[in-house]
Amino acid sequence: MANVFDCAKLKLGYTTLKKEKGIKMNKLSFKEKYSYGIGAFGKDLVYGIVGTYLMVYFTDVVKLNPAFVGTLFLVARLWDAVNDPAMGMIVDNTRSKWGKFRPWIFIGTVLNAVVLVGLFRKPDLEGLPLYAYFSIAYILWGMTYTIMDIPYWSMIPALTSDKEEREKVSVIPRIFASFGGLTIGTFGLTMIDFLGEGDKVKGYSMLAIVIAVIFVISSLITCLNVKERIETSKNTKKVNFKETLNIILKNDQLVIFIGIVLCMNLVMQISGGMAIYYFTYVIGEENLFSIFIAFSGLAEVTALMTFPSLTKKLGREKVFKLGSILPIVGFLLLLVSGYVDPKNAVFIAISGIVFKLGSGLLLASTTVMLADVVDYGHYKLGTRNESIVFSVQTLLVKSASAVSGWLVGVGLSLVGYVAGATQTAQTILGMRVLMIGAPILCAIIMYIIYKNKYKLNGKYYDHIVKSLRKKAEQDLNENM
């Protein structure tokens, strides 16, 4: 009888210890949070040089046809429709002593850094061989970026299950990512001129090498200092590609999320892809591009830093609404200033600030939303597949990049754009529509989808979290 009593006490003590440990494991140290965040800095330097400058590098430096470039971006993303979910499946099926995320973050970083250098190296080729070289390089860049990006973002729901802690953790890498984008957007053209000594081909190549080195270092910091806290691998069966697609399609909130984030990324990437053309040819002052990017980037970081306190005061739904309205206002200000006083740096800075205050709130909101969608999938389908769900985010970002690249490339050709020349009035009007009109339309569609279809807010989401915790406790007791 004494042995039975002792065993009961041991079980109770062990369960209490596990619960206490679980509470502690929801909180991350300063070192862990910022080591995780710094990985996004190098990652978004890479994405920044590709997203901001690759189109103009191809059309104005390498002299590729704009319509071909836009079509290349679109075709490459069609392959990603298979590639990205497959990578999510591979990560979720990974079992190693280093976890399932870090090995792929490191491998993907090294491969992507090498391909990036090749992407911004102009070979001694002409005609079809030149087009083939850059087509292959760009597709390889997208594939290797997937290897690293999916496991990186997939770590968030595996780091903590606490709602407030997750909101804080989700914002940190977004802040570092924004600094990465801010750095390359603000100083990119200056660094290209400095490193190339006036030779743009050399400048782009040297900048790509510098970014590749920083990328590898920042990812190493993440891999060495951050480990997943919530173990899911042991309880989650391995899945095949067909099951991967079912996990995506049966999660109705993930499908809604796809529509929301696709529109959000189109808002940012159409304007991002057009900005350098807009300021160079419509406004007639290339240097204003750097001013727009600098002030808008600082505004985005500010929005990300204030996101946790704003959500506490206003709630997630109102913050998302604010994030949807501000970009529309910012673009309208840019439109008006373009007619009233086109080269006024103050007006341009203000329009960039308003636009990116909104996009910062949207970035933070959607990062937290996707982690919540993982919980919802676990609640509804009974299986927890972080990397499969987060693979959708990578696919969406690249899909938006492809669609925006296609729109910009084909759009420029349709409106009669000629690289390095003075544009006609009709071409300038078309460029205004691409830079301002298209993003506003996408922002409106995004909020309509969110308002009418997204439901992981308030009491319903709290109920999901409580149900998952209750099930976890039941599983723990059954295993004792």
Plain-language structure description:
With 480 residues, this protein is mainly alpha-helical. Helix content is 84%, strand content 0%. The chain has 16 helices and no strands. The protein has helices at 2-25, 30-61, 66-92, 102-119, 127-154, 156-159, 163-196, 200-225, 241-250, 252-282, 287-314, 316-340, 345-381, 386-414, 425-453, 458-479. Helix 4 packs antiparallel against helix 8. The two termini are 19 Å apart. The relative contact order is 0.14. Mean pLDDT is 84; it is low at 1-25.
In short:
The protein is 84% helix and 0% strand. The protein is mainly alpha-helical and 480 residues long.
Task: Describe the protein's topology.
Layout: H1 2-25, H2 30-61, H3 66-92, H4 102-119, H5 127-154, H6 156-159, H7 163-196, H8 200-225, H9 241-250, H10 252-282, H11 287-314, H12 316-340, H13 345-381, H14 386-414, H15 425-453, H16 458-479
Helix pairs in contact: 2-7, 2-8, 2-10, 3-5, 3-14, 4-5, 4-8, 5-14, 7-8, 7-11, 7-13, 10-13, 10-14, 10-15, 11-12, 11-13, 12-13, 12-15, 13-14, 13-16, 14-15
